[in-house]
């Protein structure tokens, strides 16, 4: 694998950068090759010839200066339009992918199953993410072949992603560094390993961050998803795909619990809108190309190795630091509630989705018959209010939180979520078994072993395996 080049502060939008550079080249290409154009002269008139020459050279200078000014203006404009480092994926260190023997060897080794009975060979995108790490380990532990893919962007602390990568590596899962938008890279992976399944978990997560960096949601959740589908549809044989949608697609619905058949046309955030769009895009690829696709609507997943941007995680950090936490309240001061779902339950739902996915029916871009298309809620079916979540954290952290209750900002949040899981129960035998109290106890144990009892004192690397 080791990539030949690492570029700092390079946006993870290859298409965007590519087209910008192309555009930059075009703007220069479109300038006259020789900006000094010949000027027509009156041959019979010397004075005229001299003036014409003078005019000619003055015009040439003028044209030259104008061209330079124009090129400078275009360059400044293009430079300003490039995504900046402050954006979520802006400060990503992009590894320039280089396929070589060593890289192929690692991919093949990681992708080789350790058992013979119907083992799966799975490409897990977002493998260094929260759910991706847990799913990769679960698959590897039961003997499936697993290759991870992650772009290690800086949406939240990269060191946590690297620690997850280290853990995966220890268990024989190789995480390829790259972006889901990199078509050549994804094609190369399929060239080297015949994946039977793709567990597509790479995405731009977070409901409220979508107002700060909308483009990153389009880049990962739409363009990236399409790129994965494009490569999968053209592969022969096509893999079956399971991917992460979200409970947020239910948006402003008031009918509870949320069922898969309910309307999903009132998203409250751009994040939700991109996940809903993903579900429609999945329908298209299933319909045209015969790809077997299962979308999983995750309900506020939490647990060890979780995401620092989520409330239970950031509250823990702030409570331990003695910092105040903001608890949002809804209309009329009503508490917000979530159907918080423990990671181990989600992993079981993911693995069951892979196991029950039928084969895709197309090959090399051609469909030969109808293929499976499913959507499942994966929730806990028992919503808990945010103040209750804080009560539980206080109990296990043994620290009183400094609570500040504020009105829910208008930034894409929804007042509550509640899953109806009867479809998943029936078809996946999905049965969540961890309540919020038990799950948060496990999370706090992991948090303290990873960070120590204050976020300033870091104990990693340590033996955190038992907490998985
Ligand atoms: O199910 C999903 O599809 C989504 O789940 C998650 O979103 P949410 O359910 O919004 O989780 P999370 O941010 O932990 O906020 C939890 C609660 O705390 C409240 N909240 C939050 C922050 C704060 O400072 N104060 C507060 O009260 C907040 O108002 C909310 O009521 C994933 O992040 C998202 O990527 C997606 O996967």
Automatic annotation (TrEMBL):
Compartment(s) where it occurs, according to its Swiss-Prot or TrEMBL record: Golgi apparatus, Golgi stack membrane
Q: Which family does it belong to?
A: Belongs to the NAD(P)-dependent epimerase/dehydratase family.
Q: What protein am I looking at?
A: UDP-glucuronate 4-epimerase
Segments crossing the lipid bilayer: 59-82
- The EC number(s) attached to this protein equal 5.1.3.6
Chief subcellular site? Golgi
Topology versus the membrane: Multi-pass membrane protein
Q: Does the record carry Lipid metabolism as a key word?
A: no
Describe the reaction catalysed, as an equation: UDP-alpha-D-glucuronate = UDP-alpha-D-galacturonate
Q: List keywords of the entry alphabetically.
A: Membrane, NAD, Transmembrane, Transmembrane helix
On the tree of life, the source organism's domain of life is: Eukaryota
UniProt cross-references to SUPFAM superfamilies, sorted A to Z: NAD(P)-binding Rossmann-fold domains
Annotated Gene Ontology cellular component terms: Golgi cisterna membrane
GO molecular function annotations of the record:
racemase and epimerase activity; UDP-glucuronate 4-epimerase activity
The UniProt record lists the NAD-dependent epimerase/dehydratase domain at: 122-359
